[in-house]
Amino acid sequence: HWEKDTAPYSLAYAQAVTVTTPYNEYMYLIGGGGVKLSSDSDPIIEQSPRVMYAPLNADGTLGDWEEADDLPIKLHGASATAVDGLIYVLGGLYFSPGEAIPKFSNKAYCAKINPDGTFDTYEWKHQTNNWDLFSNWESGVAYHATIVINDRIYIIGGFRRKAYFNQTWHLTRFVLSAKLNLDGECQDLNWEVNPIEDNSLPRLMNHTAVGIEISETDQTNQTKDYIYVMGGEVWEPCDSGDACQDRAITKRLSAAVFRAEIGGESGVSVGPWENLGDFTMGGGLHLMTAVRTG
After folding, report:
1. What is the model's pTM?
2. Which of 6, 43, 206, 243 is the most interior residue, by most CB within 10 Å?
3. DSSP annotation of 197
4. Rounded to an integer, what distance in angstroms lies between the CA atom of residue 35 and that of residue 39?
């Protein structure tokens, strides 16, 4: 039985994470924005730097929402994850003053959480972030998935822009990861590319779809970690003649579930990907989310 609560502000494309402290567990809503409707244009997102948090009660309900320190810039399409009493916010889209076209953020922000849910520092820390890993791509990313497994943080898929003048957005299949110190302190992130190129994402997928980590013990008592990716929007080459209407790609919603094993002691290698079939929501879901429990 689902129970309804109300978010404290409009938060299209915002991120929600939970953090456990010695005193309580808290939910944080980060960035996003409201949908602005116009009579002469498509709906647009007005980004927000807001961050709010509420305690999670023992019965699963939410307590009162309180304001936390704003993000340094207004973001939507970013990813966020919580680990070791820290929140990391990665990538996203933002507008420079006076510009109408959003830019891809290549920044990673980190905040340390106090036991009462407040931030340890007044401002979010901007961590060094070596995303200049691809010669033909700009370094920013948006609408990607981020998860933490063991001592590594992963970025999965997402939109990037080609490193040429006036290039449009492109979905990507990249899988990156960075090792975490797990010492309770914000750190610089040294990203590494999945070394097995064919084991990048199986499709060009809009990664508001989500990755989930699940550990399984095989017959040899070895624990295996997996990333699960599901749903989202899929881009495929259009080869249906007149139906393409001069479009190079077609877009459709996906109900597929894929998983890939994290290989090796370092955790850098991911793959190969295995198609587990579709979930039951006919037609697929876009802008979906999922969480692991138990």
Report:
1. 0.84
2. 206
3. G
4. 13
Question: Could you tell me which of 88, 81, 77, 91 has the C-alpha nearest to residue 48?
Answer: 77
> Which strand (E) or helix (H) includes residue 217?
strand 210-217
CA distance 73 to 48: 8
Instruction: Give the three-class secondary structure for 264.
Output: coil
Report the distance separating Cα 26 and Cα 123, nearest Å.
19
Token code pair at residue 95: 């507008």
Copy the structure tokens of residue 265. 């002691």
The C-alpha atoms of residue 99 and residue 261 are separated, in whole angstroms, by 42
At residue 15, the pLDDT reads 84
Kindly report whether the peptide bond that precedes residue 49 is cis, defined as omega within 30 degrees of 0: no
Residue 187's φ and ψ, nearest 5 degrees, are -140, 160
Taking every pair of Cα atoms in the chain, the longest distance, rounded to a whole number of angstroms, is 63
